[in-house]
């Protein structure tokens, strides 16, 4: 039987002792020394024309990147599990400094790579030892040519530690101290913001309304700090972009996600053309909940019998069994994550909101983070994060430059896993009412991807344009957010969440700008892959793994053409993917007449 301990992950198999781990301190000391030594070595290389020397340098820089990722993942796990862990906060400062040092090394390395004569670079790409990282090397060389002189880029990296990344860490600190109090039968309960967020999807309308009212008030109480934070993060980015001569704020996120702006525009255009179907779903849901219109807090409310709580062990068994229907290897891996305590799922105060999956490339381990309270949505989130974990699992053995896949394709495996579990739940529905509630659960995810994520994209796009002219006030941020939500939801809601810009962690993540549209891309891309899997059957499992292993070795348009034979720049693929989701809308509407 599952007990509380088993819902807490075990980090001691990575570094024993948590934030006080002496082994981790030794690891950081050794990494710092190696980064400094490699920086000195690079300073003597100039543009070496020795292929063997270059192969050695490329291997070393990837080794350093793996170890830095290991360290960052460990500290992220400590911070997420206990946002009051002061030792973890101190380590974050050291990790940020170390990351800046490594970025400086990368800048020097990339400059050397860029200065290589074409003939020498071609010789490197032909070397059999570098066959798996050719795309990564070409990408680094191209990107370096689009940036400033190495000295200026190194200065930017150094200033990021206490500027750009510092603002992001301030956000985490403020959220970590926030709580939300609920009064139940005369007893007051203090919830972390992560726990409170789960209550926003409570079956009881009165609970949702109370939590949402206090939720909005809680973020309003700190909105001045959050307003400063988001303004300074955007201001830093814009200042760097201007110095590099980049006109579009989408240049960096599109490049990071290895996709064309044409692909992004086409995806949003097709979604907009199909939104009316999901507006009809939201209107029907309002009727079922006996509301004139859904409020923001009602969109995630469950309908019917799936409001029952699912024990953690039952969720584990169901997820593993359904993964097995697609791939025994995927099922075995997921089961091992539960067995080895690689999952932090306990519902307790002090944890960070949301969920994530992170990898430890040196130890070849993975960790999944979520707060599991037993809802059907929690089961879906667990499957989602295990999909991420499987993606990392199948990439093992590849060098770092061939493992660094972008966020948009990272969301492919996670959404695919979520779909496997959601469809299985539908197949096992006991009756009409349960089928309706399960369809509602699936459609909520479609609404999240097509409307909620779109609102984030619209908000950031407009915010960045206004930020170019100066600081944007809190009042204006609220207006921009509410206007974006009204546009994205096509006016389907009766009330909105104007301080969503403050409550959503994604706006404050410094590693990836525009942390929004990749979710929608991954959702629809994986929908197309899932349709292919159902068509081909079990034989598709190997093809699926081959696609995942290529996710860091080509642009997404080429990935789709190679493994699926489709064109992402045109509307056909996107429409076909949405069409598979519209069958859920049609059935939901038919069953609820």
TrEMBL record:
Pfam families: Peptidase_M3, Peptidase_M3_N. The keyword Chloroplast does not apply. GO terms for molecular function: metal ion binding; metallocarboxypeptidase activity; metalloendopeptidase activity. Keywords: Hydrolase, Metal-binding, Metalloprotease, Protease, Zinc. It comes from the Bacteria. Binds 1 zinc ion. Residues 201-558 form the Peptidase M3A/M3B catalytic domain. Residues 113-179 form the Oligopeptidase F N-terminal domain. The keyword Repressor does not apply. One of its GO terms (biological process) is proteolysis. Its cofactor is Zn(2+). Belongs to the peptidase M3 family. This is M3 family oligoendopeptidase. It comes from Alicyclobacillus mengziensis.
């Amino acid at each position: 039987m599952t007990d509380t301990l088993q819902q807490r992950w075990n980090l001691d198999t990575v570094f024993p002792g948590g934030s006080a781990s002496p082994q981790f301190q030794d690891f950081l000391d050794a990494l710092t020394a190696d980064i400094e030594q490699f920086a000195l070595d690079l300073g003597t290389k100039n543009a070496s024309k020795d292929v063997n020397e270059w192969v050695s340098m490329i291997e070393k820089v990837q080794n350093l990147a793996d170890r830095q990722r290991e360290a960052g993942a460990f500290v992220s796990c400590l911070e997420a599990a206990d946002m009051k862990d002061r030792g973890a906060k101190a380590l974050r400062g050291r990790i940020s400094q170390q990351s800046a040092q490594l970025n400086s090394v990368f800048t020097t390395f990339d400059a050397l790579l860029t200065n290589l004569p074409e003939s020498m670079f071609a010789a490197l790409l032909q070397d059999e030892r570098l066959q798996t990282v050719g795309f990564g090397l070409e990408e680094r060389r191209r990107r370096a040519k689009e940036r400033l002189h190495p000295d200026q880029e190194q200065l930017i990296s150094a200033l990021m530690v206490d500027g750009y990344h510092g603002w992001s860490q301030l956000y985490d600190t403020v959220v970590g101290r926030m709580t939300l109090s609920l009064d139940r039968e005369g007893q007051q309960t203090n919830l972390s913001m992560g726990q409170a967020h789960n209550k926003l999807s409570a079956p009881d309308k009165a609970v949702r309304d109370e939590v949402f009212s206090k939720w909005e008030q809680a973020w309003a109480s700190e909105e001045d700090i959050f307003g400063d934070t988001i303004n300074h993060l955007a201001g830093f980015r814009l200042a760097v972009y201007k110095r590099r001569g980049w006109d579009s704020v989408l240049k960096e996120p599109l490049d990071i996600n290895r996709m064309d702006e044409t692909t992004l525009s086409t995806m949003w255009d097709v979604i907009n053309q199909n939104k009316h179907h999901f507006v009809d779903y939201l209107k029907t849901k309002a009727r079922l909940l006996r509301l004139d219109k859904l409020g923001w807090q009602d969109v995630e409310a469950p309908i019917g019998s799936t409001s029952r709580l699912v024990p953690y062990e039952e969720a584990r068994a169901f997820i593993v069994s359904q993964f097995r229907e697609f791939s025994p290897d995927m099922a075995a891996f997921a089961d091992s994550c539960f067995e080895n305590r690689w999952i932090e799922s306990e519902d307790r105060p002090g944890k960070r909101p949301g969920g994530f999956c992170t990898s430890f490339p040196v130890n070849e381990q993975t960790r999944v983070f979520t707060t599991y309270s037993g809802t059907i949505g929690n089961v879906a989130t667990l499957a989602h994060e295990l999909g991420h974990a499987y993606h990392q699992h199948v990439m093992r053995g590849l060098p770092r430059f061939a493992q660094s896949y972008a966020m948009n394709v990272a969301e492919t495996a996670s959404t695919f896993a979520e779909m496997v579990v959601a469809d299985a739940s539908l197949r096992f529905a006991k009756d009409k009412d349960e089928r309706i509630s399960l369809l509602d659960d699936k459609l909520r995810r479609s609404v999240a991807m097509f409307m909620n994520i779109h609102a984030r994209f619209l908000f950031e796009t407009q915010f960045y344009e206004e930020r170019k002219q100066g600081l944007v006030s809190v009042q204006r941020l609220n207006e921009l957010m509410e206007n974006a939500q009204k546009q994205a939801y096509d006016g389907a809601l009766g009330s909105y969440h104007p301080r969503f810009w403050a409550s959503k962690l994604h706006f404050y993540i410094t590693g990836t700008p525009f942390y929004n549209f990749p979710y929608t891309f991954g959702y629809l891309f994986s929908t197309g892959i899932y349709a292919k899997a159902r068509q081909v059957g079990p034989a598709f499992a190997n093809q699926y793994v081959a696609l995942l292993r290529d996710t860091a070795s080509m642009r997404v348009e080429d990935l789709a053409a190679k493994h699926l034979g489709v064109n992402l720049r045109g509307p056909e693929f996107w429409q076909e993917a949405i069409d598979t989701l519209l069958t859920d809308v049609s059935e939901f509407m038919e069953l609820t007449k």
